[in-house]
Amino acid sequence: MSGEVSKVIDQETLWEGGRSPFSVSYGKMMMWFFLISDALTFGSLLGSLGFMRHKYIDTWPISEAIFTHFPLTHAHLPLMYVAFMTFILIVSSVTMVLAVEAGHRMDRKGVTKWLFWTVIGGAIFLGSQAWEWSTFIAGPDGDITTWADNATLTQHFYGRGFTADNPIAGPVQYSQFFFFVTGFHGTHVLSGVILNFIILLNVLKGKYEGVGHYEMVEKVGLYWHFVDLVWVFVFTFYYLV
Amino acid sequence: MKRDDIIEYSLGAGHSEEEGTQIRKKIWFVTAVLSVVTAVEVLLGVFWGSMGLAWTVVKFAFIVMTVVKAGYIVMVFMHLGDERKMMKYFILLPYAAFILYLLFLLFFEANALVPTLLS
Question: How many domains does chain B have?
Fold first, then answer.
């Protein structure tokens, strides 16, 4: 925690200005820059979702009436599966921060363990999303092969007051935003899982032991927490509000 | 600058076992907060109709809970709370300004474009 002034740093590592802005390393700052721009993209996306939500205030479907399914059961469980997905992503964020913490103590075994569980959590989330998509595409009759009568991009059932016997036309934007928002977020999760996996391999190979610190885990961790952060907002503004 | 893998500058780039115990305690605390808030959100989402609450109240409750969760994730999990004060501001303030202005415009326009009002 010693300040930059008191620390002697060799000339090779100094920034052009002779010091580091905000006392962070180059890579960490650039990760934050990337995350800000990515957050602007997601903010605009969710903002336009809000635009449609307010424009079609009378007919916008109620998500808790649509997402009522849970794997391996026919029970009526509104929002339970998406709550499960949220919990999985939060837990994988926790294992990531534990990996970062272990990295700060140069505890290679700890980093390996927690990073492994983070990758597993991300994979479970992606699988859950695949299930969620196929259930949504299958629509009220539960048949994934008959797109014509389902909540696809062209047909738009599930209006306000929807029941399986009484499909009401809601705005087509509801399913479009479902696929776009969760798809865009899912792409981020996929790249996050790949990054975490690469870093896990590097940890196993002992690369960061050689470098002398585990900052790469921290930088990839920033990205992974960001993915979790976005899901917190998607969960609220797509499924709840 | 020739190498970007040297982190002499990063604050809190390493810590001892005792500090680690403290940090882990904090992590588990935040985990509990995030889980409880999510559970409350889901229960409210399912039962708000039968609880006789007004939608506006429920909606703002959701937004407040979301911001609380986001705050914990950014400040503790992403360690932004441990960075320099200026770094915190230069990340959060421009972003907040842009997004809040965008949301203001979008909602303002959306309310003017409700189909039943136009016809």
Answer: 2
- The C-alpha of A145 sits at a distance from chain B's nearest C-alpha, in angstroms, of 30
- A213 contacts in chain B (CB < 8 Å): 7, 13-14
Distance in angstroms (rounded) separating the CA atoms of residues A36 and B91: 7
Instruction: Enumerate the residues of chain B whose CB falls inside 8 A of the CB of residue A222.
Output: 78
Contacts A90 to B, Cβ<8 Å: 31, 34-35, 38
B77 → closest Cβ in A55, A93, A239:
A93
The CATH number that applies at residue A55 is 1.20.120.80
Spell out which residues of chain A touch residue B38, defining contact as CB-CB under 8 Å: 83, 86-87, 90, 235
CB contact under 8 A, A87 and B111: no
Q: Are residues B39 and B71 in the same domain?
A: yes
Contact B9 A25 (CB under 8 A): yes
Q: Is there a domain that residue B91 lies in?
A: yes
In a domain, B90, yes or no: yes
Confidence of residue A47 (pLDDT cuts 50, 70, 90): very high
Q: Render B49-94 in DSSP notation, one character per residue.
A: TTTT--HHHHHHHHHHHHHHHHHHIIIIIT-GGGS-HHHHHHHHHH
Instruction: Count contacts between A and B (CB, < 8 Å).
Output: 183
User: Would you place residue A161 in the very low, low, confident or very high pLDDT band (cuts 50, 70, 90)?
Assistant: low
pLDDT at A199 over 90: yes
Report which of residues B8 and A227 the model is more confident about.
A227
Burial class (CB in 10 A: 0-12, 13-18, 19+), A140: middle
Say if residue B62 is in the same domain as residue B110.
Answer: no
Percentage of chain B surpassing pLDDT 70? Answer: 88
Q: Phi, psi at residue A70, to the nearest 5°?
A: -140, 140
B61 and B108 in a common domain: no
